[in-house]
Amino acid sequence: MTDKPMRIARVYTLEGHDHLDEVLRIVHDEEGIANVHAFRAIAGTGGGRDVHTASLLALSLRLPVIVEFFAEEEKVLQAIDKLQRRLDLHDIITWPVERAKGDGRC
């Protein structure tokens, strides 16, 4: 475990924009951030006026996707910079976090 400042980031995008694979490649492969997770929404606006929803009868390919990752602050900020420059992603939020104290077991 590290004593360096930690940061978490969330990247908001829509399915079908082909961003997910590239976001994962940049964050995980290039920046070496191990804690990366992608979540597919069941409904959301994706930052626009249209509401995108999923149902059992018709699955939308334009649902909101959230990619969340955390690591040492410097790594997270570097990853965000790359995402903004290369993919023109600007719906990104970030905040400082700290790991829960404990013995490291789940």
Write a structural description.
The structure is a single chain. This protein has helices at residues 20-30, 73-87, and strands at residues 6-14, 35-40, 43-44, 52-53, 64-72, 92-97. By secondary structure, the chain is α+β, with helices and mostly antiparallel strands. The chain has a single domain (6-97), classed as 2-Layer Sandwich (Alpha-Beta Plaits), CATH 3.30.70.120. Strand 3 (43-44) and strand 4 (52-53) form a beta hairpin. Helix 1 runs antiparallel to helix 2 (73-87).
Distance between the termini: 14 Å
Radius of gyration: 15 Å
Mean pLDDT: 84
Low-confidence stretches: none
Number of strands: 6
Count helical runs.
Answer: 2
Task: Indicate the structural class.
Answer: alpha+beta
- Note the beta-strand portion: 25-35%
What is the CATH topology descriptor? Alpha-Beta Plaits
Annotated CATH architecture: 2-Layer Sandwich
| CATH top level class name | Alpha Beta
In spatial order, strands of the major sheet run 2-5-1-6
Assign an overall shape: globular
Largest sheet: 4 strands, antiparallel
- Tell me the domain tally: 1
Helical residue percent?
Answer: 10-25%
List keywords for this structure.
Alpha-Beta Plaits; 106 residues; 2 helices; four-stranded antiparallel sheet; 6 strands; globular; alpha+beta
